[in-house]
Amino acid sequence: MSQLALVLECETQFISSRLSLIFAPAAGKQTIRLLPIPEPKEGYVQVRIEAAAINPLEYKIYDFAHSFIEKYPTVLGVDAAGEVTKLGPGDTKFKVGDRVMGLCTPNSREGVGSGERGAFQQYTLADVRFTAKIPANIDYDSAASFPVAANTAAGALYGQLKFTEPWLDGGEGAHNGEKIVILGGSSSVGCYAIQLAVLSGFEVTTTSSLAHFAYLQSLGATTVIDRSASDAAEQILGATGAPVKYVVDAISSVSTQLLGVDIVQPKGTIALVLNPQAPAQAAADAKEITLSRGQYFSPGFWNSVESYVGRGVLRLNRTTVLLGGLKAWEEGFDLHRKGRVSGTKIVMRPLDTNLDQVVTSVL
């Protein structure tokens, strides 16, 4: 083969390929590899990823080979924002060139492998049911902060606590005058839970560190209480006027779960983002309190996202962008491990990945 032909073959291979961050527990580390760009199947669109957010979920899967993943090797990452580059058969929701943000789930529909669905790569297949257009005034980094955190917040309020969904006719303001407590308001889930609760008409009391008080009030929280205060429970009850019926625990550590049980009235409900912890479960059982956690996917929510974000009804999380493209994953994971992420979403840009030391391989 001539040198020119070899160069052309390499260029063709690169044009039709994506850099992906491959995770295989047996190998003990994630590696960046060059893989073919996946073709969209029915119900999916191909998206070039401009920004991918890093969540605590990913480092926990990496550290503990979490059972959330059913098949390895795979591509992690659940938050992606980018541009639609190809449509699946029969798709009418999007067009090529649309700027979108979407929820990536490794456990995807039949016929689409987990390696094609993760956010930690340059191209992915986005499920049209859980993907929304990005308004013109929103950048990709901010958009990447939205999918899983906002979907989780919506799940806590409208899936687990069964409140009236605001995107339904008459749903906005359906809970005017009611009160709710959101523990961990400055977390990504907490920020969206506050805003959705306000959209539903709730008066929100939340907890956070002192540094985020003004920010959370700007999102609509009526009262913000220092999470480290020794009398936090008493302050919460003072703000709400009585034991509350509903709590969203956006952190779901042992301490926040126990705090939730302390302030919730008997037979009340606490929506968790992580599994119930044994001490909290025992305390909840004694008061007949329900600790609720579950999956929630509402096409109605995702169909309303573009309008809510465009109108400023939902403000996107603040972000911190790491340099180095996909190679920034180690820094991002470590920030979460050490508890150094507060009031912001960690984001990396896959397209900024340098090509040195890239492995040419196939999943």
From TrEMBL:
InterPro entries: ADH-like_C, ADH-like_N, ER, GroES-like_sf, NAD(P)-bd_dom_sf, Trans-enoyl_RdTase-like
SMART domains in the cross-refs: PKS_ER (SM00829)
Superkingdom of source: Eukaryota
Residues of the signal peptide: none
Protein known as: Chaperonin 10-like protein
GO molecular function, one term: oxidoreductase activity, acting on NAD(P)H
The organism of origin for this protein: Mycena metata
Domain Enoyl reductase (ER): 28-348
